[in-house]
Design a protein that fits this description.
14% of the residues are buried. Helices cover 77% and strands 0% of the residues. Helix 1 packs antiparallel against helix 2 and helix 2 runs antiparallel to helix 3. The chain has a single domain, classed as Four Helix Bundle (Hemerythrin (Met), subunit A), CATH 1.20.120.50. It is elongated, with a radius of gyration of 15 Å.
Length: 129
């Protein structure tokens, strides 16, 4: 379901390669969401949240370094969006995650999907311009 398609390419190889991994993580979240054979998904959810947070932090650092190297004029706006992404993951209440696993997975999947559509398609593509 989640795969990197040409429409998401920025034309910047490093950024595109890192975005592919974000799509892979989104696919893992989706697979967990539709998997009805795992009754308790808490450990899987928290692991995916941590993996997403760690990977996104590394990706954002690389993306920001690239933007700085080309003196990208919208870098400050990008940095704020990146910080908000990490903050959202940091503020996920693990007690709520445990109490309502299905909703948490759905919310996480929506958050990541919206991010990829809005941020990659609207914001990251501008870097290559």
């Amino acid at each position: 379901m989640y795969e990197m398609k040409d429409e998401y390419l920025t034309g910047i190889e490093q950024i595109d390669n890192e975005h592919k991994v974000l799509f892979e993580i989104a696919e893992e979240i989706y697979q967990l969401c539709v998997n009805n054979f795992v009754p308790d998904k808490y450990d899987h959810i928290t692991s995916l949240i941590q993996r997403l947070k760690d990977y996104a932090a590394m990706h954002f650092k690389n993306e920001e370094a690239y933007m700085e190297s080309i003196q990208y004029k919208r870098m400050f706006t990008q940095k704020i969006q990146h910080d908000n992404f990490i903050r959202k993951l940091d503020t996920m209440d693990l007690e709520i995650v445990d109490e309502n696993q299905a909703k948490t997975i759905e919310d996480l999947l929506k958050f990541v999907t919206d991010w990829m559509i809005e941020h990659i398609m609207e914001t990251d593509k501008r870097i290559a311009e």
